[in-house]
Structure formats: structure tokens, C-alpha cells
Amino acid sequence: MTDLTRAVSLLTIDVDAVVANWRRLSSLIAPCEAAAVVKADCYGLGVDHIAPALALAGCRSFFVATVDEGIQLRHLVPQAMIYVLSGPVSGSEGDFAAHRLVPVLNSLAQITGWAAFAKFGSAAPASAFHIDTGMNRLGLEEHELERLVGKPDVLTAVRPILAMSHLACSDDDGSPMNEAQLATFRRLTAMLPAMPLSLAASGGIFLGRAYRFDMTRPGAALYGLNPAPGKPNPMSQVVRLQGKILQVRDVDSPQSVGYGASHRVARKGKIATVAVGYADGWFRSLGNRGFGFIEGIKVPLVGRVSMDLTTFDVTDVPTHLVHPGTMMDLIGSNHGVDDVAAEAGTIGYEVLTALGRRHHRRWLSSAKGGPSA
Ligand SMILES: *Cc1c(COP(=O)(O)O)cnc(C)c1O
């Protein structure tokens, strides 16, 4: 607890809220399976704390981006299916086998490579196919599928247990790209032997039943981001970020605040300096655009964001609420990750994955008997 006393910034991650979000999606889409995408350390929020809690809640399938993430996750969820989205890079096949990681095979080259390995070592895990339906990033193209279906021995050797694709515009339910990709996915998977199918991530789930197939792969929605922008967020907020006020100073016109003197003081007032900056993932683009909250009162960010410090105009906050040591809410229930992202000119995914290493981190989890620091 001494840690929290000396903390100048505190990041609270509500693991129970992540679990509640997974349960909500899971019951919404049943009997379709809800996997959990836990890549990039659960979008920066701590896979060690979150993945075991999801497994305990009944989540059976997890997706990571890299084989390293898969190996780390295997120790946390010994029983679960772990899919590795990048697939095997040549030479890493043994790691997949040793840690029972399911490679997502993204090209005919990856498939034939895996088939050769699978024939050679009998302990090779099953695999998944990623089919490109319009993203043009990863995945098998139609001409590769045509060649693949002409190689039944290869198809048998790699033991596919899932065929998946990924939507490019699922955050926009009016985009014609969604239906086009859905149709392409149906057409291309029909070329393959029957197997479970997966198309939707967080956004796709909310495009409707047709997009859900046998398994969905939510990430962002689990961590509280709005899967259906423009509509009220159905997910629970997971993250709270607080920064400590180090100083409060009186200012008056014609003074300025911060680097570049970008904020000119227009009236007699008060500036609070908070111990969070761009080195903490508090984006520099929030300069003169962001907000904080003190006891629910909104305060504008003024001046530029520095590496370790940010300044706020607290003139309108009652004096007894603003003094050195007060924690200001930067991300929280009345100012979510998506709001901060909009102010910073980015998306919630980037705000989450940028959350800095300097914040003291606290995970709230009833499964572990209360808060753990
Ligand atoms: C990251 C990722 C997901 C999860 O997407 P969200 O929008 O965070 O739900 C699902 N599938 C693939 C292939 C991904 O790369």
C-alpha cells in the first residue's frame, strides 16, 4: 500500500468488468461461442490478471498475435485453446507443438509448411485458416483456396478446426463493405470441407446474427470500448486513470502556460499541474483539447502536454477540492477511453495499448478476494 501512497498516477483495471463484458457478449450470441482476444497484453491491461479470470468464467478459446504471446498465455490458461493470429514463421513450428498453440494459417505457403511439419511430427496441433475477404492484410486469397482444394492430402494433414476472416468496416453498420465481406466469406468457405466458422470481432457481433457464425472474436468490447460507435455503449467501463495534482498556481492575463506559450491566460484564475504526460501514453495531441474531472467537475486541459506533466484550468472548481495531492480523473466513468481517444484524434485501441508503464497499476477482482496492487 505504500506504493499507492507514493503513486503520482494510478491506473485501476476492473477485471470483474472485463469478465462481465465477456459474459454479456457470450449470452447475447449463444449458442455461438465467444472467444477472447488477449493480444498485446490484453490491449495493455494485463494478460496475467485477465486471461485466468476469463478462463474461470468459462471462456475456452483465446486469440493472441504472436507465438511469444501464445507461450506466455499457455502458462496462464493451461486447458484453453490458444490461436496465434500471425501463424508460424519458418522455424517456429516446434514452439507451436510444444505449447499446444493453434496456428492461424494465412497463406498457402504457411499451409504447406505446416503440412510438412505435421507429417513429420505427429504431435502437431490442429490449425485454423484465415481467409481474406477484403482486408488485404493477412489471409488466403481465392486462387490459393482453389489450389488448396486440389490438394486433399495437405488439407487432411493440417487438420483445420476453424475458418475465419476479419471485417474491415465493422465499426460502421452502414458500410456496404460489411455485406460484401459476408457474402465473400460464405462463398469462399463453401469451397472447404465443413468446419466451424468465425467472422466477427467486437464490431461484427453488433452487425447482427448473420455475422456471428460459430465463434466470435471480441477484444475491444471486453475492455470497455464501444463496439457500435454512434450508439450508447453496451459495455462496462474497465479502466480508470487518475493523476495527482502536484501544484496549483494563480495566474492572470497576460501570462501563458507551458511549452510554446500556446495557452494565453484570459482572466484571473487557477492552473493545476498533474503528474501525467505523453511518456505515460497521455497523448500530446490532447494539448488544448483534452479534459480532466475533479469530483465530477469537468476541467479543460490547457497548454501543451509535456513528457511528465499536464496543466488544467481549475478556476471554476471550488478551492477546497483542488490542492496538491488531489487525484484528478483523466479516464473514468464520465470520461471514457473512447472520449479521450476522440479528443486525442485517435481510437480507443491506441489509448489503451499506449497506457504507460509508469502508472501504478491496481487490478480489481473479486475472484482474488479484492483489490491487488
Ligand atoms: C485484433 C483482432 C480481433 C479483435 O478485434 P476487436 O475489434 O478488438 O474486437 C479479432 N480478430 C482479429 C483477426 C484481430 O486481429
What does this structure look like?
The chain is an alpha/beta fold and 373 residues long. The protein has two domains: 32-223, TIM Barrel (Alpha-Beta Barrel); 239-364, Lyase, Ornithine Decarboxylase, Chain A, domain 1, CATH 2.40.37.10. It is built from 13 helices and 19 strands. Strands 3-4-5-6-7-8-9 form a seven-stranded parallel beta sheet. It is elongated, with a radius of gyration of 24 Å. It starts with a helix and ends in a 9-residue tail after the last strand. It binds pyridoxal-5'-phosphate. Residues 37, 39, 85, 166, 201-203, 217-221 line the site of pyridoxal-5'-phosphate.
Brief overview, please?
Pfam families: Ala_racemase_C (PF00842), Ala_racemase_N (PF01168). With 373 residues, the protein is α/β, with parallel strands linked by helices.
